[in-house]
Amino acid sequence: MTKPLYERPTLVRHQMGMMNKFGRAQAMQPLESIDGVSVDELVKTYGSPLFVFSEADLVARYRELHDLLALRYRKIRIAWSYKTNYLDAICKVFHREGAYAEVVSEFEYDKAMRMGIDPTHVHFNGPLKSEATLERVLPAGTVIHIDHFDEMAAAERVAERQGIRPKVAVRVNMAVESVPPWSRFGFNLESGQAMEAIRRLIAGDKLELAGVHCHLGTFITDPAAYKQAAAKLAHLANTLRSEHGVLLEFIDVGGGFASHNTLKAQYLPGEQATPSFSRYVEALTEGLSQLDCDPRDLPTLVLENGRALVDDAGYLVSTVVANKRLRDGRRGLVVDAGVNTLFTSFWYNHDVVSAQPFRGIPEPTVIYGPLCMNIDVVRDTLVFPAMSVGDRLVLKNVGAYNVTQWMQFITYRPAVVMVGRDGKHGLIRRREQLEDIVGPEEVPDWL
Ligand SMILES: Cc1ncc(COP(=O)(O)O)c(C=O)c1O
After folding, report:
1. What is the CB < 6 Å shell around ligand 1?
2. Same domain (yes/no): 255, 319
3. What is the pLDDT of residue 202?
4. Structural domain count, the chain
5. Rounded to two decimals, what is the model's pTM?
6. What is the per-residue pLDDT for 4?
7. 149 and 164 in contact (C-beta within 8 Å)?
8. From 215, 252, 309, 401, mutation site for ligand 1 pocket: most ligand atoms within 8 A of C-beta
9. E-only strand ranges, 174-247
C-alpha cells in the first residue's frame, strides 16, 4: 500500500478582491506542455528560467491579422516591429510569412540587414537617425519616416550630396478619443504642423513623399481610435492629392493593438477584454473608406504591429526556490526569475500557472524573484495553490518587449527556445555566460 502524500493544512482568511466577479476563486489548469513538448523536458534540456516561444502561435497570429486585412483592403503590408522582439528566429518567422521590417535604430537596421532583408522592405522610424545613418540607408532605398524638421534638412543634404531623390514618409501625431496622445514623435496634425512640414518637403523638391505615418501608442484597447486615426490620415491624403497632386504610395497606421495580457489597472482579464483582430481591422478600413481616389490609386495600408503578434506566443518557465510566510499572512513564493528578466511584470498582471498537477487549497500568494530588491515582484497577490521547491511555474503572454528590454543584473539572462510546428525544439538564444558580460570591460593600465 502506498503511503498517502502529506498535505500540510492551510488556514485561509476571507479577503476582498481575491475572487472573480462571480464570487469564485479563479480556476487554474496546469500547463504541462507547450505545443506538445513537456515543460519538464524543456527545462531539463535548457535550464531554468527559460523563455519558450511557440512557432505555431506566431504564425497563427500573423496569418489571422494578414487574412482579415486582405479581406477588407486590397493593398496591405505588415512591417514587423523589431523593437518588440528582434531575435533572429522570431523575425525569421514573420519575414518568412512576408512581413517587412519596421526598425527604429541603426542597430535594428543592422540586424535586419544581417538577416538579408531587402533594404527597400524596411520602414525606418524613430527620432534618432544620424546623418551618417541616412548616408547609408537612403541610397539603399530604405524609406525613412521623418520625425522632425532637423531630420528633414539632414535627409535633404544627404540626397543632394548623393545625387538621389529618396522616397520618404512623414510621421504625424494626432488627437483621438480614448488614447493619451503620443505627441513627441512626428509633426502634429491638428496644429497644422504636419501640413507645414509636408509643404516644406514638397517645396524643397529633394525628397519624394511616398507615405504618411502615425503610431498612436501601444496596448490600445479601443478599436474606434483606429477608425479616427485612419480617417484623419485619409483626409490628409485627400488634401495632398487635391492641393499638391501627390499620390501617396502608403498610409502607415503603426502598431499598438493589445495582446491578451491584463494591464495592472484593468478590471477584466485580457482573455475577455482584448478586442479581436477583426474589430481593429474593421475600424481601420472604415476610417480609410474616407479616401477619395481612383481605386487603382489606393495607397498601400501598412501596419507595424509588434505586441499583438508575439506576446501570446511567449512563455517564461521559472522554478520555485523557496516558500515563505510573509508578515501579513500571505504566502511568498521565491522563484528564479526576477523583474529584470520579466520587465513587463511592472505593468501587467501576467497569467501564472503551475507546470505540474497541484494539490492543496489555493491561497493569497506573492511571487517574487532573486534580485534581493523590494521591487522584484513578479506577481503581486494572486490566489495560488501550494508549490514545492523545484516545482515549475509558467508565466504566459510574455513574448513582447521582454527579450529586448530585459536587463542584465546580478545574473545571466536566460536561454530562449522555440518549439516548432513539428514538435522540434531548439535554442534561439543561449543562456549568457560570464564572458558575454565581462567581454567589453577594460581595466586601464594606470589603475
Ligand atoms: C513606430 C512604432 N511602430 C510600431 C510599434 C509597435 O507597437 P506595438 O508593439 O504596440 O504594436 C512601436 C512601439 O512602440 C513604434 O514605436
Report:
1. 81, 83-84, 102, 104, 125, 215, 218, 254-257, 304-308, 400
2. no
3. 97
4. 2
5. 0.93
6. 72
7. no
8. 215
9. 187-188, 208-213
